[in-house]
């Protein structure tokens, strides 16, 4: 069944100015509607490395919901456990400046309880066959609890992806059970209740490592945009991985691709540093385009000794 991804689908509405972005003024430009949502992006990124993931999610009953499922199937995602329900998708409204950086955003989340019902009805058959599990960390507590029950039952690793750390930190007791989770510098500060603004990668690496060891969190990766990422585990292993130097067109989805690379690497036998390297490469491939997912890769291009299913 490959990697099982659990989380929400969103519709991304993105606005790009034609000229210098004026925060308090009217900005002429273009608006794009794109299939989005962190886990929807992640599952497509994984599929684009030809790894045949399974998605557990919901979409709405509109033509747009049907289009989301159709696209995922085209990318060879198993959508057998994607349910269609009224109001099943969230919305992310984002505005970018003329440099391609996010200037502001608002999101509206759907009711995700139908995912819990799927796990209660089909969780054993889904998780027992999984290579690993990717779980959106700020879904409802009941979904997190059920996922970990199944993961422990079948001895599966769980990797956490953050969509809203302010919500996720309310589940801090569960977060320590993730084999690895990825967040950005600001989110790490929220999680550890500290201010990391202005920290260099070297400084942040030491701080994160000390916190991870003392809290006995299995492992964590903290992204720092153009400064790369720092990583650490509870055994004291730590490091810094630089970002790739590329021309930025649109940063949307880069963090999701980075996470997908880390989860792929760790699922299929790579050490944390090697997994971060894969994540960095996938993130760079997204930044240089206006799409929010990575282009096609073969596993062997990323150092993975996996034969592609035909």
UniProtKB/TrEMBL annotation:
InterPro entries cross-referenced by the UniProt entry: Carboh/pur_kinase_PfkB_CS (IPR002173), PfkB_dom (IPR011611), Ribokinase-like (IPR029056)
PROSITE patterns documented for this protein: PFKB_KINASES_2
Domain Carbohydrate kinase PfkB: 3-287
Superkingdom, taxonomy of origin: Bacteria
SUPFAM superfamilies: Ribokinase-like (SSF53613)
GO molecular function: kinase activity
Keyword annotations from UniProtKB, A to Z: Kinase, Transferase
Regions that span the bilayer: none
PANTHER family xref list: RIBOKINASE, SUGAR KINASE
Name of this protein: Carbohydrate kinase family protein
Organism name: Anthropogastromicrobium aceti
Top-level taxonomy: Bacteria, Bacillati, Bacillota, Clostridia, Lachnospirales
């Amino acid at each position: 069944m490959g990697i099982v991804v659990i989380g929400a689908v969103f519709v991304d509405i993105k606005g790009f100015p034609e000229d210098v972005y004026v925060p308090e003024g009217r900005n002429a430009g273009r608006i794009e509607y794109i299939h989005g949502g962190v886990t929807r992006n992640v599952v497509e990124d994984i599929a684009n490395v030809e790894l045949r993931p399974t998605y557990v999610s919901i979409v709405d009953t509109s033509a747009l919901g049907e289009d989301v499922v159709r696209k995922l199937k085209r990318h060879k995602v198993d959508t057998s456990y994607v349910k269609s329900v009224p109001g099943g998708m969230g919305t992310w409204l984002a505005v970018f400046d003329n440099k391609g950086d996010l200037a502001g955003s608002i999101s509206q989340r759907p009711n995700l309880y139908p995912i819990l019902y799927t796990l209660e009805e089909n969780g054993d058959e889904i998780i027992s066959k999984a290579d690993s599990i990717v779980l959106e960390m700020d879904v409802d507590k009941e979904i997190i609890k059920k996922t970990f029950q199944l993961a422990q039952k079948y001895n599966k690793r769980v990797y956490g992806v953050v969509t809203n750390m302010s919500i996720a930190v309310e589940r801090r007791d569960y977060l320590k059970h993730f084999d690895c989770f990825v967040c950005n510098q600001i989110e790490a500060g929220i999680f550890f209740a500290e201010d990391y603004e202005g920290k260099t990668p070297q400084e942040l690496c030491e701080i994160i490592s000390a916190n991870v060891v003392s809290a006995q969190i299995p492992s964590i990766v903290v992204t720092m945009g153009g400064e790369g990422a720092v990583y650490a585990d509870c055994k004291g292993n730590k490091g810094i991985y630089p970002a790739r130097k590329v021309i930025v067109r649109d940063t949307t989805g880069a963090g999701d691709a980075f996470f997908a690379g880390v989860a792929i690497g760790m699922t299929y036998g790579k050490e944390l540093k090697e997994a971060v390297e894969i994540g960095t490469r996938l993130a760079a491939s997204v930044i240089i385009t206006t799409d929010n997912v990575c282009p096609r890769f073969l596993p062997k291009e990323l150092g993975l000794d996996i034969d592609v299913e035909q």
